[in-house]
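Contributing new records

If you add data, match the layout below exactly. Sequence lines come first and carry their own label; structure lines follow with theirs. Keep one chain per record. Anything else will be rejected by the validation script.
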Amino acid sequence: MVRRAGRSGFRQKKGPIEQLYTAPPTGCVVVCLDEMGPQASKSYPGRRLVRPAGPKAERAKQEIDYGRRDVAGYFFGAFHPATGDALTATYEGRTTANWIDFLGRVEAWIDPAVERVYAVLDNLNCHSGPDVLLFNLAHPRWEFVFQPKYAAYLNLIEPWWKVLRSLALKGRRFDAWAEIEAVVERATAYWNVHKHPFVWGRRRRHRAPSRQGVATIPNA
């Protein structure tokens, strides 16, 4: 359920994004842009066993060492749904300067022969500042397509973030931000070797039709 899905103008914004995914214009590339974070390096749990107090034996416990170490930062990502190609970069902040730097990396990443670049992204302030307008003037093949509020599902990088978390972050602890940067770079490289396209609406079309009523006769 999308919050405020029936608000004025939602369908007018949603339709063009869906069309870019399903029937993009000839000679164009659709990329999904976003940031994930902040991600902080976390300390390792204590390794010294704490002996239980009292004569009755209890299970062994570990001394817990909570707290962050080093800095917390952000992952900037670009995802090409039609091919599955992904690009990531790590920054210690989510500033306009970092965003412009990342756009420059994406511009160098996309084939120069592409005539038009449609970038799907959210309405974060740094995505539409004066520096972004200057970038757009310097790179006229770019067109920014802003998704409606409360409709993050329209940006196909969102499910890919889950893949990246699973490859790089799940079940791991990091002692420094540099370790996170290295593992995200390796995970992105691994994904690009084993990539696959993300097709808009595939899961919805293949979903089994629901049956209405509680007294439906089960299949024999």
